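Translate structure to sequence.
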């Protein structure tokens, strides 16, 4: 038991030092945008949509399924927020494709704000 006591004290000291460091790490900032500030979109593939937002921001919106597979270049997207104008997480976005057969709903799985380098790396045909 006497050999375990120094180990327990050392472990307690390490965890006491680590706790403030962990608490000091800020939570990741939410990257929200307003539906009213959207200014274009591009369908990249059946599961990926790029959306342009004011001030030259671009967001990648990933779908859970291939709901964009039937979307033609000219087919409008019905994009609405749920509750208010802010989109901060996938559940906030109600997205449907308006095609010849009516409205097809999409389930948004992920929303990612692209960095300026990622925007620059997009092929011109994918930039919204």
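Result:
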């Amino acid at each position: 038991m006497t050999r375990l006591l120094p180990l327990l004290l050392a472990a307690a000291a390490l965890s006491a030092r680590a706790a403030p460091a962990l608490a000091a790490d800020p939570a990741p900032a939410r990257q929200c945008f307003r539906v009213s500030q959207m200014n274009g979109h591009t369908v990249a593939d059946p599961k990926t949509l790029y959306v342009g937002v004011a001030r030259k921001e671009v967001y990648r919106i990933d779908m859970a399924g291939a709901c964009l597979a039937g979307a033609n270049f000219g087919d409008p997207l019905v994009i609405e927020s749920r509750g208010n104008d802010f989109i901060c997480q996938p559940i906030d976005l109600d997205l449907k494709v308006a095609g010849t057969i009516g409205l097809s709903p999409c389930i948004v799985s992920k929303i990612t704000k692209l960095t300026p380098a990622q925007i620059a790396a997009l092929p011109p045909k994918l930039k919204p």
